[in-house]
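In the laboratory, one determines a bound structure by crystallizing the protein with its ligand and collecting diffraction data. In a computational setting the workflow is compressed into a single prediction: the sequence and the ligand go in, and a structural description comes out. We illustrate the idea with zinc ion.
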Amino acid sequence: MEMEECIFCKIGRGEINCNKVYEDDEFLAFRDINPQAPVHILVIPKKHIAKLYDTEEISLLGRLLYIASKIAKDEGTAESGYRVVINTNRNAGQSVEHLHLHLLGGRIMHWPPG
Ligand code: 5GP
Ligand code: ZN
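The predicted complex, in structure-token form:
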């Protein structure tokens, strides 16, 4: 997948609209277009990383997780509970090949996930 055509790169560059909840130089968080929970936010690095295993940048991954934890608080879902998910490849159902963290909250989650 070319970075020029990647949908999340386009969202990161502001070429496709999104419902933004957080932005800094490196990261963007926005509401999922097809929400699976009352709170369903995607956090992405603006630079193109296709899969979780495609980066050695440990501090970038740490910041991704930290941003999710801050947003969970801002959304009022920290105390009741939430889930963070990074689907990778076919068995997990990764449908967009640009690293993204799902923050899901606002309802009871089941375990194991489907
Ligand atoms: P995956 O299945 O790869 O883990 O998650 C991809 C997510 O991106 C899905 O939950 C899907 O609804 C969301 N998504 C796909 N295209 C767009 C889009 O253009 N805008 C937004 N806000 N979400 C999108
Ligand atoms: Zn991309």
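The domain at 7-105 is CATH 3.30.428.10 (HIT family, subunit A). Keep in mind that any predicted model is a hypothesis to be tested, not a measurement.
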